[in-house]
Write a structure and sequence with these properties.
Layout: E1 4-8, H1 32-43, E2 47-52, H2 57-68, E3 73-78, H3 100-105, E4 115-119, E5 122-123, H4 126-138, E6 144-151, E7 162-169, E8 175-187, E9 190-193, E10 201-202, E11 207-215, H5 219-234, H6 244-253, E12 257-262, E13 268-269, H7 276-288
Parallel strand pairs: 1-2, 1-4, 2-3, 6-12
Antiparallel strand pairs: 4-11, 5-13, 6-11, 7-8, 7-11, 8-9, 9-10
Helix pairs in contact: 1-4
């Protein structure tokens, strides 16, 4: 059975100010997701699962079904606040779901094979998908997961702060720990992280996860267990989030391995509206270099 690609698209894009996941950036109106799905298909993935909010299914289906029909299987999964919360009493002030690990958990019933997870609004590049499919087909198991690693310096925005899963590597080059750091930006030639954690300054070549993960389906039961614990300890906090790095960090501490797979692909994403022109320019450059056709789905 071919591996599956899970796309996290349930975010409301509050900082960007629109539903950026379905905004066209390519010359024929392609979304960033289109390029990820195109790369997934030519790399050997067999299914794509969109994790979305319950109010958006018609929007997504209208955009993606006509161009993906016959090319790759599709599923649409909802992430909602009360999913997998059991008898936990959700605080009245809580309005948004519980973060990226909770989002992946919502795909539990439709993903039974090794799978990759990506963000909807990040461009990862063909090489990243080729590396992921190789790992999912040959190296992934219930004790061995992976991330595609990028240099922090290459993932910043000129228009505001970003959040990143900062990686610490062990002596074998695998992941020792991953910590979600927030409010990261370049200042006076230095990368500064304005949160309550140390160190405040991060090295330019720090490896980060851009939320391109490779998992065995055992991830779901393990994550559901940790989410139950998370609700007990942090569920009453109005803005607490259950991130994928929380699960990965615990997995490593309990004896699991997460490989860090470097990629030659260029990463770029849209965190702010001001990032859009750079994304368009970058895509046009890749098309000019022959990496992608002028029109993804009609060529």
């Amino acid at each position: 059975m071919k591996p599956t690609l899970v796309i996290l698209a349930a975010g409301m894009a509050s900082r960007y100010g629109s539903m950026k996941q379905v905004q066209g950036f390519g010359p024929s109106g392609e979304t960033i997701m289109d390029y990820s799905i195109f790369d997934a298909i030519r790399s050997g993935f067999g299914k794509v699962v969109f994790i979305i909010r319950q109010e958006f299914p018609d929007n997504f289906r209208h955009i993606f079904e006509p161009k993906l029909k016959g090319k790759i299987a599709t599923e649409y999964v909802f992430q909602e606040l009360d999913f997998f919360t059991g008898n936990f009493e959700i605080p009245a002030v809580r309005t948004k779901p519980w973060g990226t690990a909770h989002a992946v958990l919502c795909a539990k019933e439709v993903v039974k094979e090794p799978f990759a997870v990506i963000n909807a609004d990040d461009f990862y590049g063909h090489d990243a998908f080729k590396k992921a499919i190789t790992f999912l087909n040959t190296g992934c198991n219930e004790r061995n997961y992976a991330i595609i690693g990028y240099d922090l310096l290459k993932t910043l925005s000129e228009h505001g702060t970003v959040n990143r899963g900062v990686c610490t590597l062990n002596h074998e080059g695998g992941l020792a720990s991953v910590t979600e750091r927030i409010n990261i930006a370049m200042k006076d030639g230095r990368i500064v992280c304005n949160d309550d954690l140390e160190p405040r300054e991060l090295a330019l070549n720090t490896k980060v996860s851009m939320n391109f993960w490779c998992f065995d389906p055992s991830f779901f039961s393990y994550t559901q267990q940790l989410f139950t614990e998370f609700l007990i300890h942090h569920g009453k906090e109005p803005k607490s989030e259950f991130f994928i790095p929380i699960v990965a960090d615990r997995f490593i501490k309990e004896g699991g391995r997460v490989e860090v797979i470097p990629t030659t692909s260029s990463w770029f994403g849209v965190t702010y509206k001001e990032d859009a022109p750079f994304v368009e320019q970058s895509l046009n450059r890749l098309i000019k270099d022959g990496e992608y056709p002028e029109s993804l789905w009609t060529s």
